[in-house]
Amino acid sequence: MALPGFPHPSGIAEYDDRRRRERLHATRLGAGWVRWRRTRLMIMRLSLIPLVTIGVFAEYLAVDVLPEQARLAQTHPAVLPIAGPSDPKASDTAVFDLVGLGVLDASDTARALPSLRRLGSVWAVRYDNTGIDTKVIADLIVKVTDAAKVPNVVLSGHSMGGVIALEIAKHLHTGSTKKVQAVLLDCTPVDLDAVRPESRDQGEEMLRWMGWVPGARESRFLRLVVEMYARHDRFAGGPYLIRGDQFRDALKDVLRTKILNNDAASNGLIEAQFKAIVAGGAVDDLRALAKPVAGKPRPAVVFIRPHNPFDDPIVDVDYSHKVLIDQVGGMDGTLLVVKTRTTGHANPIERPQEYNTVIENQVVPFVRELQLEWATTAVYLGR
């Protein structure tokens, strides 16, 4: 051992932890501060929080929001051909299918309903991922039907898609030369009161997020959080509060279908779809369709719903049913209500057989009968 004041015999300086601590103490931040040292240190440390927050927010905008904004700016609505009419008598009619909340493209749904071909050629509406402009969609329908020299239109809307279909039908009925022969509404909420409270609360919460979180309309990270929360019943619980395998399966499903899929509806589109219900314009659209315009007959309105109203967990179909009777039903009405046995909420892809059966056996005969009635009346009146 070295004596005090003499070097270590090995020639290696002896390690002195006390001197190291003294050196660190003398060189640390604020070592020379005498007055208000603790307060000044606290203020300095707290000032780092907004700097870190700004850095994280900048990364959020650069990585998540801005690329999605650029992608969405290039989207546009479209109408996509699915199939020609199965009946030559229906060659003068085009059927346009529209899907509901959270879905972008109606192609898969339209393909699941080949019975629509009995009414005319079938088209699918693909929404603009930045939002919904029903006048733009109506103008597209006029353009493609004019090109095909088709004078008649049928609109088919599933869930919230029925709200959009009614507004498009009003544009066509009151502002074009096209004859809207029918509007098919599949479990459509005619206003916000028709949405069951739990689903209504989720939608209103989403609108609040959209209002105050910057970039919420485009953020895929926030979409991931919302979609995983919506599926929490699949993985929540167990001794560790989260069941790992189920959580991974849910995460893979959300990433594949909602986040990394460019055909998934954006947050902004979902917001626009829910606002269409909140606006409550469907009743006014029904009133407009309940009157003949410029010699064009009133469209048939068909409401497809489960026989048991509680089979639809999202829409109070009994409520919508009553509103439709008030607006377009009655002795001289144009309303047909079709009650199914095995369907739930607007799920033709899951229950294609029953949907196609009721369309074939009930909807098509009703629409054709109403067309014949109006044609006979027009001949009688000498139009």
Automatic annotation (TrEMBL):
MF term (GO), any: hydrolase activity
Keywords tagged on the record: Hydrolase
AB hydrolase-1 domain mapped to chain residues: 114-355
Domain of life: Bacteria
Protein name according to UniProt: Alpha/beta fold hydrolase
Native source species: Nocardia terrae
Organism phylogeny: Bacteria, Bacillati, Actinomycetota, Actinomycetes, Mycobacteriales
